[in-house]
């Protein structure tokens, strides 16, 4: 493709010098530039790509996209926003791959990863070749690639969609974070179905207020349905029990389908039973009802299953097919993952890293526990500071024993993060053990048969980020070691 053809994706720009070279790739990291690349200069939070333009040209870049002056020998295309241009160029360069398959996007504070895996299972059961993009990995068929972000930037995203198209993917599901929506990472992506799980506090470092956070998530719904030919319906799947859904309903041009337990909803769960084996309930949908016995514990997972069912329903998957798929799912790694042992203690590793998810997981564990509920909780560094006291409070209120520890302190002082947590607790007992390994060992050592130990916050993560160092750390491995060291059930 030559430069002028690539540039048809961004009809408004200023080019500083003549030239129409052949373009072999688009890159936004100068280290990946090779002969024939266009290099897009992105002004990031830690690095300004404009400063790498010269080096990119030395490495073979034949054109530069910039929003600030750069002095190089090849044509420079000036645009208002290189991030926005990148999404448009990427979608065009890769041939608008999302037009070739059915795409379901999921947004919401909690439950995206879980719901995306449920939807993937449903789509597979109905015979689709699937793709999945999310917190844990990007998956095409059975092949997975690790991800740095829940929703990658637009270039990686379109490249991945293009690979999906080539691999014959017929339906895909992806998590769409509020960061991604705000930064336009999904611009140029065509969703057929958008799912909303819930909205509670998180990420107030990035979005500043809950209103801004809600609006960012709303972009998934406000962009849905307006650019499609009327013969291809688009659907917004909204949680009737979350009041943000009313805002999203008002924003969208898509068909709206609601799910829920409390408010009147199009797809509703009734006769819910929560047991240690999971959940059992009946889903009522337009024209019928179907019983579901899921191995996923907790009321919040009933919501995730309903959301997945609703997405499958509007994607024309038969309810019977969905039932089989949903009942097959034993769990998602790091979400309510039990660490098996013969010491009579329930050890649960869970990815709860928000106040609401922590309350949910502890409330789920409580009725399943004969003895005490022990919670090990930390809060991430360089993340929303205002959730720290709330998470500490949730641990003290919903567990019998709360241990505060470290969870990816990143550039912050772990003691300062713990002090922020402590500020949320008034008149309740807790223990501070800064070293996460020691915290897990101590909790498991002192747990009695019948007790539950909830290790929250890291879930599937296999690292602890301290400063800039990424150390191997896996809650499940550490818990297993601690259980192996534990004497016959009593410390
Ligand atoms: C705050 C934030 O969103 N940061 C994202 C951002 O990083 P950044 O702005 O620091 O990037 P940068 O390092 O300054 O680089 C700027 C540009 O220069 C380029 N570069 C950089 C270095 C170099 O030597 N040469 C070069 O050309 C880079 O390729 C980039 O194009 O752009 C990076 C590349 O796309 C992202 O990986 C990174 O996510 C970081 C890892 C992150 O932690 N993001 C979090 C806050 C986030 O986005 N989370 C959401 C939600 C998670 C959830 O569900 O709760 C997510 O979707 O992951
Ligand atoms: N529907 C839900 N409502 C509230 N809490 C939930 C829900 N589903 C899962 N959780 C809790 O949130 C944690 C994270 O779940 P999951 O990974 O599915 O969410 P996510 O939205 O993908 O999170 P992230 O934004 O970090 O990617 C779970 O471990 C569980 O404790
Ligand atoms: N997607 C979330 C994950 C948080 C996980 C927790 N372990 C932490 O590091 O805070 C974030 O980046 O804020
Ligand atoms: Mg996720």
Automatic annotation (TrEMBL):
InterPro entries: Mur-like_cat_sf (IPR036565), Mur_ligase_C (IPR004101), Mur_ligase_C_dom_sf (IPR036615), Mur_ligase_cen (IPR013221), Mur_ligase_N (IPR000713), MurE/MurF_N (IPR035911), UDP-N-AcMur-Glu-dNH2Pim_ligase (IPR005761). Carboxylation is probably crucial for Mg(2+) binding and, consequently, for the gamma-phosphate positioning of ATP. Meso-2,6-diaminopimelate binds at residues 383, 407-410, 457, 461. Pfam families: Mur_ligase (PF01225), Mur_ligase_C (PF02875), Mur_ligase_M (PF08245). Its cofactor is Mg(2+). Residues 334-459 form the Mur ligase C-terminal domain. ATP binds at residues 108-114. Residues 106-311 form the Mur ligase central domain. A motif (Meso-diaminopimelate recognition motif) lies at residues 407-410. It is found in: Cytoplasm. Signal peptide: none annotated. Keywords: ATP-binding, Cell cycle, Cell division, Cell shape, Cell wall biogenesis/degradation, Cytoplasm, Ligase, Magnesium, Nucleotide-binding, Peptidoglycan synthesis. GO terms for biological process: cell division; cell wall organization; peptidoglycan biosynthetic process; regulation of cell shape. Its main location: cytoplasm. Catalyzes the addition of meso-diaminopimelic acid to the nucleotide precursor UDP-N-acetylmuramoyl-L-alanyl-D-glutamate (UMAG) in the biosynthesis of bacterial cell-wall peptidoglycan. This is UDP-N-acetylmuramoyl-L-alanyl-D-glutamate--2,6-diaminopimelate ligase. It comes from Domibacillus epiphyticus. The lineage of its organism: Bacteria, Bacillati, Bacillota, Bacilli, Bacillales. The gene is murE.
């Amino acid at each position: 493709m030559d430069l002028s053809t690539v540039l048809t994706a961004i009809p408004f720009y200023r080019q500083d010098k003549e030239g129409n070279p052949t373009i072999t790739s688009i890159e936004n990291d100068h280290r990946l530039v090779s002969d024939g690349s266009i290099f897009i200069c992105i002004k990031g939070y830690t690095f300004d790509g404009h400063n790498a333009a010269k080096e990119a040209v030395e490495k073979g870049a034949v054109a530069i996209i910039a929003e600030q002056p750069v002095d190089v020998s090849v044509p420079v295309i000036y645009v208002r926003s290189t991030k926005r241009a990148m999404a448009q160029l990427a979608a065009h360069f890769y041939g608008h791959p999302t037009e070739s398959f059915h795409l379901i996007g999921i947004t919401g504070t909690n439950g995206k990863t879980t719901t995306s895996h449920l939807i993937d299972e449903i789509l597979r059961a109905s015979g689709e070749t699937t793709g999945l993009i999310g917190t844990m990995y990007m998956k095409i068929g059975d092949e997975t690639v690790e991800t740095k972000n829940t929703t990658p930037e637009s270039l990686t995203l379109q490249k991945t969609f293009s690979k999906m198209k080539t691999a014959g993917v017929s339906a895909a599901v992806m998590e769409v974070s509020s960061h991604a929506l705000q930064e336009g990472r999904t611009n140029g992506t065509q969703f057929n179905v958008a799912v909303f799980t819930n909205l509670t506090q998180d990420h107030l470092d990035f979005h500043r207020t809950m209103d801004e956070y809600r609006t960012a998530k709303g972009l998934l719904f406000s962009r849905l349905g307006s650019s499609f030919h009327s013969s291809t319906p688009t659907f917004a799947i909204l949680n009737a029990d979350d009041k943000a859904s009313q805002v999203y309903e008002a924003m969208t041009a898509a068909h709206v389908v609601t799910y829920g337990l409390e408010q009147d909803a199009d797809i509703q769960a009734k006769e819910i039973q929560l047991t240690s084996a999971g959940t059992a309930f009946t889903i009522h949908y337009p024209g019928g009802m179907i019983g579901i016995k899921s191995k996923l514990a907790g009321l919040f997972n009933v919501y995730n299953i309903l959301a997945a069912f609703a997405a499958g329903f509007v994607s024309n998957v038969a309810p019977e097919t969905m039932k089989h798929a949903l009942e097959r799912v034993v769990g998602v790694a790091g979400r309510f993952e039990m660490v098996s042992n013969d010491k009579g203690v329930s050890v649960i590793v869970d990815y709860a890293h928000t106040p609401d998810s922590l309350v949910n997981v502890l409330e789920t564990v409580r009725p399943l526990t004969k003895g005490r509920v022990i919670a090990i909780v930390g809060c991430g560094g360089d993340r929303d500071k205002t959730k720290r006291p709330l998470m500490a409070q949730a641990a003290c209120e919903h567990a019998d024993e709360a241990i505060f520890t470290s969870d990816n302190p990143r550039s912050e002082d772990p003691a300062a993060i713990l002090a922020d947590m402590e500020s949320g607790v008034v008149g309740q007992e807790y223990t501070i053990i800064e070293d996460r390994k020691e915290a897990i060992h101590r909790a498991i050592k002192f747990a009695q048969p019948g007790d539950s130990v909830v290790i929250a916050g890291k879930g599937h993560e296999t690292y602890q980020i301290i400063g800039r160092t990424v150390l191997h750390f896996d809650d499940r491995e550490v818990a297993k070691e601690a259980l192996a060291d534990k004497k016959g059930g009593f410390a």
